[in-house]
Amino acid sequence: MTPPVPALTVLIAARNEGAWIGPCLAALAGQAEPATGPVEVIVVANGCTDDTAGRARSSAPAFAARGWRLVVLELEQGGKLGALAAGETAASGGALAYLDADVTCDQGLLAALAEALDTPVPRYATGRLAIAPAKSRFTRAYARIWARLPFVRSGAVGAGLFALNRPGRSRWGDWPEIISDDTFARLQFRPDERHEVPVSYHWPMVEGFARLVRVRRRQDAGVAQIADRFPRLLANEGKAPVTPALLARLALSDPLGLAAYLAVHVAVRLQRHSGDWTRGR
Question: Ranges for the Glycosyltransferase 2-like domain (predicted)?
């Protein structure tokens, strides 16, 4: 008997994520099955020097018990875009979800994504972003302000998790050599084509001032790179600007949080980006 086609393939590009991959996969294995079919999960361990692949394989029994497929691929070469391409080649799902290995999903998220993407028209979907509790006081303060920015409040942010149906993925061919794959994917879709389902996923921010500066610098460089190489995509941005009035409200309601956010913002602009890959952890 031919197994049913998965409703959704979850692709996880993981490089030295041994400390995170277990909880990430456990949250996926405990998800409700979408009404349109089973789930397939593909972990692409790329350039790993730790036990990411082994820890991922140890989750196989939990997926097998559900009748779901867990595949672990190992690539000697590091690089997220190559890992995504390898995962897409192996994927058989009717829709594709791109998940960071340090993200955990609330119950019902995969079913909600599969339902949102079950349409013949191109569509992008994500969950409701929840910032995981930080350990450092500085990151907690920074995160309070970041969560109140118009870009985040508008929804369908897609940081750490975004999903596409097959017609949506057909909007471009191979992944280009870019820094920010999530921004590139999101901007392939107009705001009315991007959907946030009402189920949360938990995305951790990096800890401490120095790491936040490195990651923020890389994020800004990724956005600038897309603006330079793919300027037509900027028409799909659709986010409101940060206004002086908003900054005044933030200063009154959370002066310490705004000070942390502005400290990172200023530091990013005072330091030149090297162009190299920056790990936040």
Answer: 9-144
pLDDT digits (tens, 9 = 90+) for 233-259: 999 998 888 899 999 999 999 999 999
Q: Domain extents for the chain?
A: 8-270
Q: 252 CB contacts (<8 Å, ≥6 apart)? A: none
What pTM, to 2 d.p., does this model score? 0.94
Which of 3.40.1190.20, 3.90.550.10, 3.40.50.10800, 3.10.20.30 is the CATH number of 8-270?
3.90.550.10
Nearest to 165 by CA among 195, 187, 192, 191: 195
> Tokens 């490089």 label which residue?
15
Angstrom distance (rounded) from CA 170 to CA 172: 5
Beta-bridge partners for 129: 201
Express each pLDDT in 114-144 by its tens digit: 999 999 999 999 999 999 999 999 999 999 9
DSSP 8-state secondary structure symbol assigned to residue 3: P
